[in-house]
Amino acid sequence: MQAPDAGYICADRVPREGQGEDDPLDHFMVGSPDLAVEVRSPSERVAALRAKAERWLAAGTSEVWIIDGRREVVHVLRREAMPIVLHKDDTLTTPDVLPGFAVSVAGLFERQR
């Protein structure tokens, strides 16, 4: 079993509330998120994260972001599309999962002084 660093599940796929101890909101969701986010740690290789991303996509995830703070880039992998790498002048969007969402890549890595 694997879990992303962050994930998003579309509202129509969120488990419905149950009763008492069997409430599905008290447990991890079984299945893959619609969007999985992996944040590269200093000891991780991009190739290993890409392999993990491919497993997410094979399991049904629509899109995976690999956020690489060391290089200040975002790798975007989508089902049935070539992977892309976004740099500081690019904008990260996800039209199929979160229509209207947009954030500058530079803004993701902006450091507060």
Give a quick summary of the entry:
The chain has two helices and seven strands. With 113 residues, the chain is α+β, with helices and mostly antiparallel strands. The radius of gyration is 15 Å and the shape is globular.
Report on this structure.
There is one protein chain. The protein is of the alpha+beta class. It has one domain (6-108): tt1808, chain A (Alpha-Beta Complex), CATH 3.90.1570. It is built from 2 helices and 7 strands, in the order ββαβββββα. The chain has helices at 46-58, 105-108; strands at residues 6-8, 35-39, 63-68, 73-78, 84-86, 91-93, 102-104. The relative contact order is 0.15.
How helix-rich are the residues, as a percent range?
10-25%
Determine the CATH topology: tt1808, chain A
Global morphology: globular
Largest pleated sheet: 5 strands, mixed
The value of Rg in angstroms is 15 Å
Q: Count the domains.
A: 1
Order of helices and strands: EEHEEEEEH
Number of beta-strand segments:
7
Structural class: alpha+beta
Average residue-wise pLDDT: 88
Strand content: 25-35%
> Helix count?
2
**CATH architectural category:** Alpha-Beta Complex
CATH class reads Alpha Beta
The CATH homologous superfamily? tt1808, chain A
Strand order of the largest sheet: 1-2-3-4-5
